[in-house]
Amino acid sequence: MYPLAVEIQENISLAQYTTFGIGGPARYFCAVTSEADLTDALEWACERGLRHFVLGGGSNLLVSDTGYDGLVLHMRIAGVTVEKHGDKAIYTAGAGEDWDALVKRAAEDGCAGIECLAGIPGTVGGTPVQNVGAYGQEVAETIISVRVWDTATSEFRELDAAACGFSYRHSIFNTTAVGRYIVTRVSYALRPGGGAQLKYADLQKRFAGTAVLITLVGVYEAVRAIRAAKGMLLVEGDADCNSAGSFFKNPVVSAGDVAFIAAEAGVMPEAMPQYPAGEGRVKLSAAWLLERAGFAKGFTSGRAGVSTKHTLALTNRGGATAAEVHALRDEILRTVEQRFHIRLQQEPVELT
After folding, report:
1. Structural domain includes residue 3
2. Domain boundary at 49, 75, 101, which?
3. What percentage of the chain carries pLDDT values higher than 70?
4. Residue 1, domain member (yes or no)
5. Considering the entire predicted model, what is its pTM?
6. Is 246 a catalytic residue?
7. Of all helices (H) and strands (E), which one includes residue 73?
8. Are residues 24 and 133 in the same domain?
9. Which of 55, 75, 95 is the C-terminal boundary of a domain?
Protein backbone atom coordinates (compact mmCIF):
# COMPACT_ATOMS: atom_id res chain seq x y z
CA MET A 1 0.00 0.00 0.00
CA TYR A 2 1.10 3.55 -0.73
CA PRO A 3 -0.17 6.95 0.52
CA LEU A 4 -2.45 7.46 -2.46
CA ALA A 5 -6.19 7.62 -3.05
CA VAL A 6 -5.65 4.73 -5.44
CA GLU A 7 -4.17 1.36 -4.44
CA ILE A 8 -0.94 0.14 -6.02
CA GLN A 9 -0.37 -3.61 -5.74
CA GLU A 10 2.85 -5.52 -6.34
CA ASN A 11 3.78 -8.69 -8.25
CA ILE A 12 0.32 -9.51 -9.60
CA SER A 13 0.03 -12.41 -12.08
CA LEU A 14 -1.17 -11.13 -15.44
CA ALA A 15 -2.13 -14.55 -16.83
CA GLN A 16 -5.39 -14.36 -14.86
CA TYR A 17 -6.30 -11.12 -16.63
CA THR A 18 -5.87 -12.44 -20.18
CA THR A 19 -8.00 -14.79 -22.26
CA PHE A 20 -4.81 -16.59 -23.31
CA GLY A 21 -4.10 -17.43 -19.66
CA ILE A 22 -0.41 -16.82 -20.28
CA GLY A 23 2.13 -14.43 -18.81
CA GLY A 24 4.30 -13.49 -15.87
CA PRO A 25 3.62 -10.89 -13.16
CA ALA A 26 3.23 -7.13 -13.26
CA ARG A 27 5.77 -5.46 -10.97
CA TYR A 28 3.04 -2.98 -10.02
CA PHE A 29 -0.69 -3.14 -10.69
CA CYS A 30 -3.52 -0.66 -10.26
CA ALA A 31 -7.29 -1.01 -10.79
CA VAL A 32 -8.44 2.27 -12.39
CA THR A 33 -12.11 3.02 -11.68
CA SER A 34 -12.10 6.77 -12.41
CA GLU A 35 -10.18 9.40 -14.31
CA ALA A 36 -8.82 10.63 -10.96
CA ASP A 37 -7.44 7.13 -10.31
CA LEU A 38 -5.75 7.26 -13.68
CA THR A 39 -3.99 10.59 -13.17
CA ASP A 40 -2.94 9.66 -9.61
CA ALA A 41 -1.47 6.34 -10.74
CA LEU A 42 0.35 7.92 -13.68
CA GLU A 43 1.83 10.58 -11.41
CA TRP A 44 2.99 7.87 -9.01
CA ALA A 45 4.65 5.96 -11.87
CA CYS A 46 6.25 9.10 -13.31
CA GLU A 47 7.82 10.00 -9.94
CA ARG A 48 9.50 6.59 -9.93
CA GLY A 49 10.51 6.56 -13.59
CA LEU A 50 8.26 3.60 -14.35
CA ARG A 51 6.73 2.77 -17.71
CA HIS A 52 3.03 1.91 -17.79
CA PHE A 53 0.67 -0.31 -19.75
CA VAL A 54 -3.11 -0.02 -20.03
CA LEU A 55 -4.94 -3.36 -19.66
CA GLY A 56 -8.57 -3.77 -20.63
CA GLY A 57 -10.25 -7.14 -21.00
CA GLY A 58 -6.99 -8.88 -21.92
CA SER A 59 -8.61 -10.46 -24.97
CA ASN A 60 -6.10 -9.17 -27.53
CA LEU A 61 -2.95 -9.57 -25.48
CA LEU A 62 -0.01 -11.94 -25.16
CA VAL A 63 2.07 -11.31 -22.04
CA SER A 64 5.69 -12.45 -21.94
CA ASP A 65 6.73 -15.21 -19.58
CA THR A 66 8.84 -12.74 -17.59
CA GLY A 67 5.92 -10.38 -17.08
CA TYR A 68 6.07 -6.58 -17.08
CA ASP A 69 8.55 -4.52 -15.06
CA GLY A 70 6.36 -1.44 -14.75
CA LEU A 71 2.87 -0.32 -13.76
CA VAL A 72 -0.14 -2.07 -15.29
CA LEU A 73 -3.26 0.10 -15.27
CA HIS A 74 -6.31 -2.18 -15.30
CA MET A 75 -9.01 -0.01 -16.85
CA ARG A 76 -12.32 -0.44 -15.00
CA ILE A 77 -14.01 2.92 -15.61
CA ALA A 78 -17.71 2.09 -15.85
CA GLY A 79 -20.96 3.79 -16.80
CA VAL A 80 -23.18 4.06 -19.89
CA THR A 81 -25.32 7.05 -20.89
CA VAL A 82 -27.68 7.37 -23.84
CA GLU A 83 -28.71 10.71 -25.38
CA LYS A 84 -30.89 11.43 -28.39
CA HIS A 85 -29.39 13.73 -31.02
CA GLY A 86 -31.59 14.14 -34.08
CA ASP A 87 -32.03 10.75 -35.68
CA LYS A 88 -29.16 9.24 -33.67
CA ALA A 89 -28.84 7.74 -30.20
CA ILE A 90 -25.45 8.54 -28.68
CA TYR A 91 -24.19 5.77 -26.42
CA THR A 92 -21.27 6.92 -24.27
CA ALA A 93 -19.55 4.17 -22.30
CA GLY A 94 -16.66 4.05 -19.87
CA ALA A 95 -13.53 2.32 -21.12
CA GLY A 96 -13.96 -0.49 -18.60
CA GLU A 97 -17.47 -1.46 -19.69
CA ASP A 98 -17.88 -4.96 -21.11
CA TRP A 99 -18.17 -4.62 -24.88
CA ASP A 100 -20.59 -7.49 -25.52
CA ALA A 101 -22.92 -6.17 -22.80
CA LEU A 102 -23.03 -2.80 -24.56
CA VAL A 103 -23.79 -4.45 -27.91
CA LYS A 104 -26.61 -6.45 -26.32
CA ARG A 105 -28.09 -3.37 -24.68
CA ALA A 106 -28.06 -1.42 -27.95
CA ALA A 107 -29.73 -4.32 -29.78
CA GLU A 108 -32.39 -4.64 -27.12
CA ASP A 109 -32.96 -0.88 -27.34
CA GLY A 110 -33.52 -1.25 -31.09
CA CYS A 111 -30.48 0.86 -31.97
CA ALA A 112 -28.53 -0.40 -34.98
CA GLY A 113 -24.86 -0.06 -35.82
CA ILE A 114 -22.91 -2.53 -33.68
CA GLU A 115 -25.13 -5.65 -33.59
CA CYS A 116 -22.70 -7.65 -35.76
CA LEU A 117 -19.94 -7.02 -33.23
CA ALA A 118 -21.59 -9.27 -30.65
CA GLY A 119 -19.56 -11.76 -28.65
CA ILE A 120 -16.23 -9.99 -29.11
CA PRO A 121 -14.46 -10.28 -25.74
CA GLY A 122 -12.89 -7.26 -24.13
CA THR A 123 -13.87 -3.80 -23.01
CA VAL A 124 -15.09 -0.61 -24.64
CA GLY A 125 -11.70 1.10 -24.34
CA GLY A 126 -10.10 -1.40 -26.70
CA THR A 127 -12.58 -0.95 -29.53
CA PRO A 128 -11.19 2.25 -31.07
CA VAL A 129 -7.59 1.12 -30.64
CA GLN A 130 -7.73 -1.63 -33.27
CA ASN A 131 -10.96 -0.43 -34.91
CA VAL A 132 -12.74 -3.60 -33.86
CA GLY A 133 -14.69 -5.19 -36.68
CA ALA A 134 -16.51 -8.40 -37.61
CA TYR A 135 -19.24 -9.70 -39.88
CA GLY A 136 -19.41 -6.59 -42.04
CA GLN A 137 -19.25 -3.91 -39.35
CA GLU A 138 -16.48 -1.99 -37.62
CA VAL A 139 -16.63 0.55 -34.82
CA ALA A 140 -15.22 3.30 -37.06
CA GLU A 141 -18.69 3.46 -38.65
CA THR A 142 -20.30 4.58 -35.39
CA ILE A 143 -17.64 6.18 -33.17
CA ILE A 144 -18.07 9.95 -33.01
CA SER A 145 -15.62 10.75 -30.21
CA VAL A 146 -13.06 9.18 -27.92
CA ARG A 147 -12.13 10.78 -24.61
CA VAL A 148 -8.47 10.28 -23.81
CA TRP A 149 -5.74 11.28 -21.42
CA ASP A 150 -2.94 12.80 -23.50
CA THR A 151 0.33 11.79 -21.88
CA ALA A 152 2.23 14.29 -24.04
CA THR A 153 0.31 17.31 -22.74
CA SER A 154 -1.03 15.91 -19.44
CA GLU A 155 -4.66 16.78 -20.18
CA PHE A 156 -7.92 15.11 -21.11
CA ARG A 157 -9.00 15.56 -24.72
CA GLU A 158 -11.92 14.65 -26.97
CA LEU A 159 -10.82 13.18 -30.31
CA ASP A 160 -13.39 12.99 -33.10
CA ALA A 161 -13.48 10.06 -35.51
CA ALA A 162 -11.34 11.81 -38.11
CA ALA A 163 -8.61 12.49 -35.54
CA CYS A 164 -8.53 8.78 -34.66
CA GLY A 165 -7.29 7.89 -38.17
CA PHE A 166 -9.33 4.73 -38.54
CA SER A 167 -8.55 2.12 -41.20
CA TYR A 168 -8.78 -1.68 -41.32
CA ARG A 169 -7.81 -2.87 -37.80
CA HIS A 170 -5.84 0.35 -37.32
CA SER A 171 -6.07 3.74 -35.65
CA ILE A 172 -3.59 6.31 -34.40
CA PHE A 173 -3.72 4.46 -31.07
CA ASN A 174 -1.89 1.43 -32.48
CA THR A 175 0.15 3.13 -35.20
CA THR A 176 1.34 6.75 -35.22
CA ALA A 177 0.51 7.59 -31.60
CA VAL A 178 1.18 4.32 -29.77
CA GLY A 179 1.38 4.97 -26.04
CA ARG A 180 0.43 8.64 -26.22
CA TYR A 181 -3.29 8.38 -25.45
CA ILE A 182 -5.20 6.45 -22.78
CA VAL A 183 -8.86 5.92 -23.63
CA THR A 184 -11.29 6.63 -20.78
CA ARG A 185 -14.62 6.61 -22.63
CA VAL A 186 -16.06 6.24 -26.12
CA SER A 187 -19.20 7.65 -27.78
CA TYR A 188 -21.05 5.78 -30.54
CA ALA A 189 -23.81 7.20 -32.76
CA LEU A 190 -26.38 4.44 -33.34
CA ARG A 191 -29.60 4.39 -35.39
CA PRO A 192 -32.85 3.95 -33.42
CA GLY A 193 -35.18 1.73 -35.44
CA GLY A 194 -32.40 0.95 -37.92
CA GLY A 195 -32.35 -2.35 -39.77
CA ALA A 196 -29.89 -5.15 -39.12
CA GLN A 197 -26.92 -5.58 -41.44
CA LEU A 198 -26.41 -8.92 -43.15
CA LYS A 199 -23.36 -8.21 -45.30
CA TYR A 200 -21.36 -11.30 -44.36
CA ALA A 201 -21.91 -14.70 -45.95
CA ASP A 202 -22.14 -16.51 -42.59
CA LEU A 203 -25.01 -14.28 -41.51
CA GLN A 204 -26.76 -14.42 -44.88
CA LYS A 205 -26.60 -18.21 -44.74
CA ARG A 206 -27.88 -18.19 -41.16
CA PHE A 207 -31.05 -16.33 -42.14
CA ALA A 208 -31.51 -17.70 -45.66
CA GLY A 209 -35.06 -18.79 -46.38
CA THR A 210 -36.41 -17.59 -43.05
CA ALA A 211 -39.78 -15.89 -42.97
CA VAL A 212 -39.18 -14.55 -39.48
CA LEU A 213 -38.54 -10.81 -39.08
CA ILE A 214 -34.80 -10.31 -38.68
CA THR A 215 -34.30 -8.19 -35.56
CA LEU A 216 -31.20 -6.62 -34.08
CA VAL A 217 -31.43 -9.01 -31.13
CA GLY A 218 -31.77 -11.90 -33.58
CA VAL A 219 -28.58 -10.83 -35.34
CA TYR A 220 -26.82 -10.36 -31.99
CA GLU A 221 -27.72 -13.92 -30.98
CA ALA A 222 -26.85 -15.34 -34.42
CA VAL A 223 -23.40 -13.75 -34.35
CA ARG A 224 -22.74 -15.16 -30.89
CA ALA A 225 -23.81 -18.61 -32.09
CA ILE A 226 -21.52 -18.40 -35.12
CA ARG A 227 -18.62 -17.24 -32.95
CA ALA A 228 -19.27 -20.06 -30.47
CA ALA A 229 -19.13 -22.64 -33.27
CA LYS A 230 -15.72 -21.22 -34.23
CA GLY A 231 -14.38 -21.14 -30.68
CA MET A 232 -14.46 -17.33 -30.76
CA LEU A 233 -16.83 -16.97 -27.82
CA LEU A 234 -15.56 -17.29 -24.27
CA VAL A 235 -16.98 -20.51 -22.83
CA GLU A 236 -15.81 -21.82 -19.46
CA GLY A 237 -13.89 -25.08 -19.78
CA ASP A 238 -13.40 -24.90 -23.57
CA ALA A 239 -9.66 -25.07 -24.32
CA ASP A 240 -10.24 -23.40 -27.68
CA CYS A 241 -11.23 -20.26 -25.79
CA ASN A 242 -7.76 -19.93 -24.25
CA SER A 243 -6.68 -17.64 -27.04
CA ALA A 244 -6.55 -14.02 -28.15
CA GLY A 245 -9.09 -14.56 -30.93
CA SER A 246 -7.81 -14.15 -34.46
CA PHE A 247 -4.03 -14.18 -34.18
CA PHE A 248 -3.37 -12.96 -37.73
CA LYS A 249 -4.95 -10.13 -39.70
CA ASN A 250 -6.49 -10.84 -43.08
CA PRO A 251 -3.86 -9.62 -45.55
CA VAL A 252 -4.64 -6.95 -48.13
CA VAL A 253 -2.81 -7.45 -51.42
CA SER A 254 -2.69 -5.99 -54.89
CA ALA A 255 -5.42 -7.31 -57.18
CA GLY A 256 -2.65 -8.25 -59.58
CA ASP A 257 -1.18 -10.69 -57.04
CA VAL A 258 -4.35 -12.75 -56.64
CA ALA A 259 -3.73 -14.97 -59.66
CA PHE A 260 -0.20 -15.82 -58.46
CA ILE A 261 -1.38 -16.65 -54.93
CA ALA A 262 -4.21 -18.81 -56.27
CA ALA A 263 -1.77 -20.67 -58.53
CA GLU A 264 0.53 -21.35 -55.57
CA ALA A 265 -2.49 -22.76 -53.72
CA GLY A 266 -3.43 -24.89 -56.72
CA VAL A 267 -6.86 -23.32 -57.27
CA MET A 268 -8.48 -20.93 -59.71
CA PRO A 269 -8.60 -17.30 -58.50
CA GLU A 270 -12.38 -17.36 -58.23
CA ALA A 271 -12.17 -20.31 -55.82
CA MET A 272 -10.09 -18.31 -53.34
CA PRO A 273 -11.94 -16.28 -50.67
CA GLN A 274 -11.40 -12.60 -51.44
CA TYR A 275 -13.08 -9.27 -50.75
CA PRO A 276 -12.71 -5.79 -52.28
CA ALA A 277 -10.43 -3.57 -50.20
CA GLY A 278 -10.30 -0.33 -52.12
CA GLU A 279 -9.07 0.55 -55.58
CA GLY A 280 -6.76 -2.14 -56.90
CA ARG A 281 -6.65 -3.93 -53.53
CA VAL A 282 -8.10 -7.23 -52.34
CA LYS A 283 -8.46 -8.65 -48.84
CA LEU A 284 -7.70 -12.36 -48.54
CA SER A 285 -8.63 -14.86 -45.86
CA ALA A 286 -5.69 -15.49 -43.53
CA ALA A 287 -7.42 -18.66 -42.28
CA TRP A 288 -7.62 -20.01 -45.83
CA LEU A 289 -3.90 -19.32 -46.36
CA LEU A 290 -2.99 -21.09 -43.10
CA GLU A 291 -4.97 -24.16 -44.03
CA ARG A 292 -3.28 -24.42 -47.42
CA ALA A 293 0.10 -23.94 -45.75
CA GLY A 294 -0.50 -27.04 -43.62
CA PHE A 295 -1.85 -25.54 -40.40
CA ALA A 296 -5.25 -27.17 -40.12
CA LYS A 297 -7.61 -26.90 -37.19
CA GLY A 298 -6.22 -28.82 -34.23
CA PHE A 299 -2.56 -28.52 -35.30
CA THR A 300 -0.37 -28.56 -32.19
CA SER A 301 3.16 -27.55 -31.33
CA GLY A 302 4.03 -28.38 -27.74
CA ARG A 303 1.32 -26.99 -25.49
CA ALA A 304 0.30 -24.36 -28.05
CA GLY A 305 -1.88 -25.12 -31.02
CA VAL A 306 -4.38 -24.02 -33.62
CA SER A 307 -7.98 -24.00 -32.42
CA THR A 308 -10.00 -27.07 -33.32
CA LYS A 309 -12.81 -24.73 -34.37
CA HIS A 310 -11.12 -21.82 -36.13
CA THR A 311 -7.83 -21.83 -38.01
CA LEU A 312 -6.92 -18.22 -37.14
CA ALA A 313 -6.93 -18.72 -33.37
CA LEU A 314 -3.75 -19.89 -31.68
CA THR A 315 -4.57 -21.48 -28.35
CA ASN A 316 -3.11 -22.41 -24.99
CA ARG A 317 -3.89 -26.12 -24.83
CA GLY A 318 -2.94 -26.18 -21.15
CA GLY A 319 0.11 -24.71 -19.46
CA ALA A 320 1.53 -23.14 -22.63
CA THR A 321 4.11 -20.39 -22.36
CA ALA A 322 4.44 -17.27 -24.43
CA ALA A 323 7.61 -18.78 -25.87
CA GLU A 324 5.63 -21.77 -27.18
CA VAL A 325 3.05 -19.49 -28.78
CA HIS A 326 5.87 -17.48 -30.37
CA ALA A 327 7.44 -20.64 -31.76
CA LEU A 328 4.16 -21.71 -33.38
CA ARG A 329 3.56 -18.19 -34.67
CA ASP A 330 7.00 -18.00 -36.24
CA GLU A 331 6.57 -21.38 -37.91
CA ILE A 332 3.29 -20.24 -39.44
CA LEU A 333 4.68 -16.87 -40.57
CA ARG A 334 7.70 -18.51 -42.18
CA THR A 335 5.70 -21.19 -43.98
CA VAL A 336 3.00 -18.85 -45.32
CA GLU A 337 5.61 -16.38 -46.55
CA GLN A 338 7.61 -19.11 -48.29
CA ARG A 339 4.50 -20.54 -49.93
CA PHE A 340 2.59 -17.40 -50.90
CA HIS A 341 5.08 -14.51 -50.56
CA ILE A 342 2.75 -12.93 -48.01
CA ARG A 343 3.99 -11.77 -44.61
CA LEU A 344 1.05 -12.05 -42.23
CA GLN A 345 0.65 -9.49 -39.48
CA GLN A 346 0.01 -10.43 -35.87
CA GLU A 347 -3.16 -9.05 -34.30
CA PRO A 348 -2.64 -9.47 -30.51
CA VAL A 349 -0.55 -6.90 -28.66
CA GLU A 350 2.67 -8.13 -27.05
CA LEU A 351 3.51 -7.08 -23.49
CA THR A 352 7.11 -7.60 -22.45
Report:
1. no
2. 75
3. 99
4. no
5. 0.91
6. yes
7. strand 68-75
8. no
9. 75
Which residue is catalytic, options 76, 147, 169, 292? Answer: 169
Active site residue 329: no
Q: Determine phi and psi for 229, rounding to 5 degrees.
A: -65, -25
Which structural domain, as residue segments, surrounds residue 215?
Answer: 80-229
Count of domains in the chain? Answer: 3
Backbone angles phi, psi at 201, to 5 degrees: -60, -40
- Annotated active-site residue 167? The verdict is no
Residue 283 phi/psi, 5-degree rounding, is: -95, 130
Q: What pLDDT is recorded for position 160?
A: 98
Confidence of residue 2 (pLDDT cuts 50, 70, 90): very low
Q: Which of 38, 128, 17 is nearest to 351 (CA)?
A: 17
Of 59, 145, 243, 246, the active-site residue reads 246
Q: Which residue has the higher pLDDT, 98 or 198?
A: 98
| CATH (domain of 16) | 3.30.43.10
Q: How many CB atoms lie within 10 A of CB 280?
A: 10
| Amino acid at position 3, single letter | P
4 pLDDT higher than 80? no
Lowest mean pLDDT among 55-59, 196-200, 218-222, 226-230: 196-200
Same-domain pairing of 116 and 14: no
